[in-house]
Write a structure and sequence with these properties.
alpha+beta; Spore Coat Polysaccharide Biosynthesis Protein SpsA, Chain A; three-stranded antiparallel sheet; 14 strands
Length: 207
């Protein structure tokens, strides 16, 4: 199972501040499956700029894949093994959407992923629930990129900027991760969700 060829993979965390200890621990404990893995942490004020910097690091460093992990996401130990089984250009792990943290998946909690075929905007009703995760891999319109594996071949095809926060004249917004997904589709690259990679998502309350 998984990739039998050794890959060079950059794992990086984009963050406004410090990453959660649970996030670091989950990366440290993750099965690397014999691949050549490097780690970096990119800190700044603009999340799209940080994500783009990681993409450039992956390309310039001659990596085969880039795995971006948000600073509050916890990986399962077999995350990398499953994300590479089978190998695709873009695949995401699953985690609970921020506003639904604390809701049990069995109660139909919403995930970070959005369904295909939704007209124009990423509305709440387009979210995929845990109850709908019935296949190991699903093609999706897009979603939160808190656990995102991308081949550098895809990054080179899409080109800079891969991530961009967009504000429209109507004052509506498109987040940087959904912009990435739209760019992928525009370049004919499907976005996959691996339902076996079920991540934790931390919701800290700052008082």
């Amino acid at each position: 199972m998984g990739s039998t060829n050794k890959k060079k993979i950059l794992i990086a965390i984009p963050s406004y501040g410090a990453a959660e200890m649970e996030t670091f621990r989950s990366i440290y404990n993750m099965d690397r499956c014999g691949h050549e893995v490097s780690f970096d942490f990119v800190r700044g004020y603009l999340i799209d700029a940080e994500r783009n910097s990681i993409c450039e690091m992956a390309i310039n460093g001659g990596y085969d894949y880039m795995l971006q992990i948000d600073s509050d996401v916890i990986l399962p130990p077999d995350a990398l093994r499953n994300l590479l089984d089978p190998e695709t250009d873009i695949v995401m792990g699953v985690y609970t959407e921020k506003r639904y943290i604390g809701q049990h998946p069995e109660q139909g909690g919403h995930t970070n992923a959005h369904k295909l075929g939704v007209a124009h905007s990423y509305i709440l009703e387009s979210s995929i629930t845990y109850a709908e995760l019935t296949e190991p891999r699903m093609k999706i319109k897009g979603g939160g990129t808190g656990c995102l594996l991308v081949s550098t071949a895809a990054l080179q095809k899409m080109r800079y900027p891969w991530f961009k926060f967009v504000e429209y004249p109507s004052r509506e917004h498109l987040s940087e991760d959904l912009y990435f997904c739209e760019q992928a589709h525009a370049h004919g690259i499907p976005v996959w969700l691996d339902t076996r990679v079920r991540c934790g998502h931390i919701n800290r309350q700052i008082i």
